[in-house]
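The following record pairs a protein chain with its ligand, NDP.
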Amino acid sequence: MSSATIIDGKAFAAKLRHRVAAGVASFVAITQRKPGLAVVLVGDDPASQVYVGSKKKATVEAGMNSFEHRLPATVSQEELIALVETLNADDAVDGILVQLPLPAHIDDKAVIAAIDPAKDVDGFHVVNAGRLAVGEDAFVPCTPLGCLMLLKEYVGDLSGKNAVVIGRSNIVGKPMAQLLLAENCTVTIAHSRTQDLPDVVRRADIVVAAVGRAEMVTADWLKPGAVVIDVGINRLPPQAGETKGRLVGDVAFDDALAHAGAITPVPGGVGPMTIACLLRNNLVAAHRRAGLEVPQGI
Ligand code: NDP
């Protein structure tokens, strides 16, 4: 039985981070300053703390400044927006990332709207979402951008391919669909109300699963040879002898190996690309703010 190529997101992300670091070095040589990324963390959600810690480490390793702002969960929306406005005005800050989710009393849309679109390296601001939709230069959310890079690396020309994106969030599903459309794919966006989802997925040359349901996409949903990008991160309940359950994606990986042409693993697929693309977006923001041409190949 044939076995799918395992798409090594970790290795691809390492190469991208290397290219970003080289771009940072040239930027510093020209401007005599390091690009800066400000990360704002509200409250003490353990998963968010881990994400912010990894982003800080990667930012510094790429040669950029990391400015971390930790605020208590009790901070008011006005205080948080005031901090965002200070960062908007700070010339040492090229990119601003407000780690989501925010506490329930804060409207995340209002906070994202306060970020200067030129510093919106997460690509969540409506101005960037709009620019992506109409085909103008935009900051694209890091996870779908990373997925697209992996697809281009492993598939090459995407033109004319049938792509099915499962999930329609503003962070992953919708921008992913826009990116694939811009590559001339025929795009279907599936979601919780989609009828006959397995049949819809079976028509796809490219499947991007961004749902958050452990191993929902089974091997029999896949067209033989389909390229599968698994965005989902789900923790299974611990089995006997495990302290923590295993991390799995939205696709039943082991079974899918016999049907897919190529597939990303979880972990080690899309996840590492997300941080690498954040660094890439921050370097792009720094170049644009400095009036410099963005380096090729990042
Ligand atoms: P959301 O919860 O915002 O969106 C999930 C989407 O899945 C929704 O559009 C929902 O449909 C759809 N959905 C839910 N149930 C079904 C179903 N039974 N059949 C079909 N569609 C369904 O999640 P995100 O987009 O933020 O994240 C998706 C997954 O990706 C999560 O596991 C998350 O942890 C992971 N993730 C991974 C990242 C990485 O770096 N690797 C980064 C970001 C996310 P509807 O709109 O109808 O409710």
